Amino acid sequence: MFRLILHTLLFFFLNASLALATPIRIKDLVEFDGVRGNDLVGYGLVVGLNGTGDGIRNAPFTEEIMSNILERLGVNVTGEQFRPKNVAAVFVTATLPPFSRAGSQIDITVSAIGDAKSLLGGTLIMTPLNAADGEIYAVAQGTIIAGGISAEGDGGSVTQGVPTAGVIPAGARVEREIDFELSSLSTLRLALRTPDFTTAGRIEQAINEDFGRGVSVMLDAGTVQIDIASTRMTSPAHALGRIENILVTPERRARVVVDQRSGTIVMGDDVRISRVAVAQGNLTLRIQEDPIVVQPNPFSPGEVVVVPRTRAGIEEEEGTGLAELNEGTSLSEVIAGLNALGVSPRDMIDILKSIKAAGALHAEFVVR
């Protein structure tokens, strides 16, 4: 079974390496400077819950916001004592996409902040969403779609998923636009999501080959600057629409990523290992106590004595051995060598750590 898993991983990695050699659009490698989203947040109230809302005594802010909403609607609740269980105070978060216009709709996420047990079936009351500058850019309202379920009885409870958080697709309407004059830009910078000098140089070369020399210049490993005027396009938007679809083959660093909790190992095809020998084996120490009780003969003087007896042994599991990896060993040879040892995924992680510590693994080693 383990050999089948390793061969499947090997097939996946080799196909992934071929995919990495495929040219990728510039729009999938960079972010355009200034073309970005903005985070929004608001504080609101969810109503219509089936007895799964906040306990008012444990969450007094729920009573406060409920009183404020009712007073804005013309209901005087001064001095009244609320004890409903069908309301919950929530935080509402969203991202305002770039170039969003007034009247467009965006998705929102609703999360309980009190002791509510579930937001399933609740309705978010009109909630203003603010940006970092304190201005209101959108207003949210709608029925929540929760991603979990919770049930309980007198003797126990069960919860699946997270019923205290949910989403409202197209649940907020944009009320204010963010000023950004793309048409007035004379230069624009491309910010690489993964900074790399080779990739930035290839982006510069590909753009200059498409538009002509002098249009783009690499400033550093993470930035390529575009001279909009040199593109001779009618507008910066037309220039970016053409630039973002230019194909470039990115360069990736050799990297090995392991997850110790799940035993997952992900390696790129460009990982290389110098000449090194690997020996792997597990020793199992077994100690068993079998005390014997010795009693005196009937009607004879004496005491009961417990005689300790211990059985100890050491066993070595099968599959141990020595594998030698030659200079410049590739990923496929590493997998084949470790597979020959019959090691488990967790043992393989320990082996890779040891190879890295020995200075023979020429790749970035990331442990999660």
TrEMBL record:
Transmembrane segments: none annotated. Residues 1-21 form the signal peptide. It is found in: Bacterial flagellum basal body. The keyword Signal applies. GO terms for biological process: bacterial-type flagellum-dependent cell motility. Keywords: Bacterial flagellum, Cell projection, Cilium, Flagellum, Periplasm, Signal. The basal body constitutes a major portion of the flagellar organelle and consists of four rings (L,P,S, and M) mounted on a central rod. NCBIfam families: PRK05303.1. Assembles around the rod to form the L-ring and probably protects the motor/basal body from shearing forces during rotation. Belongs to the FlgI family. This is Flagellar P-ring protein.
